[in-house]
Amino acid sequence: MAAMQFETPPAPAAAAPPAKPFTKKFWKSVRDFPMLYLGALIIVLLILAAVLAPVISPHNPTTQFSDGLTESGIPVGPSAKFPLGADNLGRDILSRVLYGAQVSLLVGVISTVINLVLGVLVGTVAGYFGGWVDNVLMRVTDIILAFPLLLFAMALVAVLGPSLWNVLFAIGVLGWGTMARVVRGQVLAVKEFEYVQAERALGASNTRIMFRVILPNIIGPVIVLSTLNVGQNILVEAGLSFLGIGIQPPTPSWGNMIEAGMQTYQVAPWTLWFPGLALVIAVLGFNLLGDGLRDILDPRNTQH
Amino acid sequence: MYAYILRRLFSAVIVLFGISVVTFLLIYAIPADPARMIAGPKAPESVVLTIRHQLGLDQPLPLQYIHYVWRLLHGDLGTSYTYNLPVATMIVQRLWPTAELALGCWLAELIIGIPLGIYTARHARRLGDYIVSALALIGISLPLFWLGLLLLYWLAYQVPIFPLGGFGGLRYLILPSLTYGITGAAYYTRLLKSSMLEVMQQDYVRTARAKGAGESRVTFRHVVRNALIPVVTFAGIDFSYLLTGVVLVEATFNWNGFGSLAYTAIQNLDVPVIMGTVLLVAVAVVLFNLIVDILYSVIDPRIRYS
């Protein structure tokens, strides 16, 4: 320790102290917001699993191994070759769960981005202009919200044909109702503030006021809702795939793995356990992060 | 008050109109050729043309829409591609099992959610609260169909207490309801807790305490009763979740309701049946929320003026 101090050049006085307090601060904030960090950790692991799936998967996710099934056709349980067991076609469940993370993240995140763009656009314009614009946009939102998302997405995918992009598109285009309502409420509250009035007095355009002045001020609830939205959309995708209208086999998705597990769970329960567990952990990650962010961003919570 | 109800009715009619446009477009405008879907890929072109004419698909879109709404208003939801039966009849036959299941699911949510909400509010920021809150978060994150299959595995296969799915008496209803209850209860728990914590700070609660009312009297007579208002509002929103959840629960438990009907229709790409169920659900959601809102304006006059 002492030798090291001699070898390294003396750090500038101002830069040296923050090094330790930063880690201290970090652990303190971990203690203050354990949910937030647990959620973030889960999501980081999820992203790693998805990105590294081709590298860390022990097998190809669609290869059907003849030794993955017993002679009577029952999937083999967890073993050295198949760490989480094999599925009803003798495929490696661990590899399929890892690749399944790709589908869930892709659908969850991109559909949420579509929700976000549409919801923020509709909500901001409705709240900002008010009057008949607000009336028309909010009735459209009511119509969208009258259809339960899963059923509505189901109908749209049935018409478009089941594929990854259609699932993603359907959830994205149909799921923005809640976002629009929340954003509208926030805009209504913010648009009467002095700094908004001041911008208007200075002659700023409506577009500028809406997206450069108001939007940054309501970004907190938007981030929280989007985070929770990713988890919800992952569940909707899994639901669609479980019903057979989402991601089509042999492409692994946790939803269609559970559907496949439905045929074998009595004799081979691991075909059910692991894809479901992955799904719960992923959704939990986004729910933890969303709730954690709300605790931080909501001023009512920081007062006590 | 009548002005409010009229306004509310008017916007409900607009929304219903929008719903009919959306389902119409999904059935008639987006698919490449519904007539080809009905006739099958191998049918000769003349058959397809006949079907197209029979369905009025050779007419302009707005005219087709008017015919569509006209048929809807007469209770005609179209004809199933697969079974060649009226969709309305098929759905009506399945309504009762679904209503039974939905009621069971909703009761399970309340039975699990409300007591836990009261418990966490009374033990806020203590160990019990943290444990229940963590469980609630897991409950929200659970996929219905997976939980349902796990419960089937444990409580119907390994320990055969309940039947392995199917539709029947109370014994068949318990597992599906429990499945939905576990995943949905968390919303009620969280809502009731935060609402109770808010009410507990009100002056009238302090007054009740000052009068010497006991802790459980304060909780149940004063806090819970007032805190239930947002919970009842949520029940209106929950109705739409419930109708979605029922589709997944029915698919998992092989329950013979209209969710199963939609599920089978998807397997066969039977578009009229899918749209019929979706339309029915959307209309039910709108009407249910309309009724809740009107009842509210009768009970709580403040709402009318907002």
Descriptive report:
The complex is a heterodimer of chains A (304) and B (306). Chain A is an all-alpha fold. Chain A has helices at residues 2-7, 16-32, 34-56, 93-129, 131-146, 149-160, 164-174, 177-190, 194-201, 206-217, 219-242, 254-264, 270-297, 299-302. Chain B has two domains: 32-76, no CATH class; 92-299, MetI-like (MetI-like fold), CATH 1.10.3720. Chain B is 79% helix and 0% strand. Chain B is built from 13 helices and no strands. In chain B, helix 5 (87-122) packs antiparallel against helix 10 (215-253) and helix 10 packs parallel to helix 11 (258-267). The model of chain B has no long low-confidence stretch (mean pLDDT 86). Chains A and B meet through helix 5, helix 6, helix 11, helix 12 and helix 13 of A and helix 1, helix 6, helix 7, helix 10 and helix 11 of B.
Q: Largest interface by residue count?
A: A-B, 43 and 49 residues
Name the poorly predicted regions of chain A.
1-11
Here the CATH topology of the largest domain in chain B equals: MetI-like fold
User: What percent of residues of chain B adopt helix (DSSP H or I)?
Assistant: over 70%
Look at the structure and give the mean pLDDT of chain A: 88
CATH class placement of the domain at 101-297 in chain A: Mainly Alpha
In the CATH hierarchy, what is the architecture of the domain at 101-297 in chain A at level 2?
A: Orthogonal Bundle
Terminal CA distance of chain A: 42 Å
Q: Measured on Cα atoms, how large is the radius of gyration of chain A?
A: 24 Å
Elements of chain A, N to C (H/E):
HHHHHHHHHHHHHH
In percent, how much strand structure appears in the residues of chain B? under 5%
Task: Output the structural class of chain B.
Answer: mainly alpha
The parts of chain B where pLDDT drops under 50 for at least 5 residues are none
Question: What's the SSE blueprint?
Answer:
The complex is a heterodimer of chains A (304) and B (306).
Chain A: H1 2-7, H2 16-32, H3 34-56, H4 93-129, H5 131-146, H6 149-160, H7 164-174, H8 177-190, H9 194-201, H10 206-217, H11 219-242, H12 254-264, H13 270-297, H14 299-302
Chain B: H1 2-29, H2 34-39, H3 45-54, H4 61-73, H5 87-122, H6 127-141, H7 144-158, H8 170-199, H9 203-210, H10 215-253, H11 258-267, H12 271-299, H13 302-305
Helix pairs in contact in B: 1-4, 1-12, 5-6, 5-8, 5-10, 5-12, 6-8, 7-8, 7-10, 8-10, 9-10, 10-11, 10-12, 11-12
